[in-house]
Amino acid sequence: MAKKKIVIALGHQALGTNLPEQKANVAHTSKIIADFIQDGCQIALVHSNAPQVGMIHTAMNEFGKQHGGYTAAPMSVCSAMSQGYIGYDLQNGIRAELTRRGIYKTVSTVLTQVTVDPYDETTYKPAKVIGRYMSAAEAAEEEAKGNYVTEESGKGFRRMVAAPTPVAIVEIEAIKALLAADQIVISCGGGGIPVMEQGYNLRGASAIIEKDLVSGLLAREIDADVLMILTDVDFVCLNYGTEAEKPITHMTVAEAKAYIEDNQFGTSSMLPKIQAAINFIESGSGRKAIITSMANAKDSMTGKTGTIIE
Question: In this predicted model, what pLDDT tens digit does every residue of 249-277 receive, in sequence order?
Answer without folding.
Answer: 999 999 999 999 999 998 888 999 999 99
